[in-house]
Amino acid sequence: MTTARHLRVSDAERQDAAARIGAAWAEGRLDDAEYDRRLEQAFAAVTYADLDQLFTDLPGPRPVAPPPQYAPPVQRPVSWLPAPVWNRGAVGQVRGTGLQLLLFTVTVGIWGYVYFFQTHDEMKRHTGEGIGGVLALVLAVVFWMASPFLLSHEVGRLYERRGQRRPVSALTGLWFFPGILILIGPVVWFVLTNRALSGYWRSVGAR
Q: What angle do CA 93, 55, 46 make, to 5 degrees?
């Protein structure tokens, strides 16, 4: 007879495990390298035992496998994570911070318009909320200085919708202005905001 820990997990359970790992990263319990390692292992997990070992040092309930059975268990919602309460549509793109900064530099800032359009468009498609890409682009053209504050706010809302602490918020935009007066300020803003956005997309299955 197959023990409960050695029963196979479903794709939904792998996704839920990835979301919990993303939450631990957002709370500062995992560094970037450990987050990437565990996320890769979550998607490669085959059995409940594989998932269980990812959470041995994290607080909260551990994965609970269904009782052992001779027949395959009936698929049902996973009980060791809260059910998602936010609308989860299309998943956005993970963007490397270094590459994006290079594109900003090479295009003398013009890439910023593309970046604001793409990121806001993806968040709108994913949650059904937010201003969307077109309005974000118009705002960037008409009143550029407001865009960093709005983007950080919207990224923070992604986490807030699923009950997590915001890693960034509108206040993060202060790194852009008046932080621009110390030159490095806009870079700090971008690193914080893009890292949080990419971390969210990874937590919902983006690679």
A: 70
At 169 the three-state DSSP class reads: coil
- Token digits for 4? 């409960």
Output the six-digit token pair for 174.
């202060």
Pairwise CA distance, residues 136 & 143, whole Å: 10
Give me the amino acid identity at 66.
P
- Cβ proximity of 120 and 136 under 8 Å: yes
Q: How far apart are CA 174 and CA 24, in angstroms?
A: 26
Mean pLDDT of 165-176: 92
Identify the band that residue 85 occupies on the pLDDT scale cut at 50, 70 and 90.
Answer: very low
Q: Is the peptide bond before 178 cis (omega within 30 degrees of 0)?
A: yes
Phi, psi (deg, nearest 5) at residue 205: 110, -5
| Alpha-carbon span 17 to 142, nearest angstrom | 42
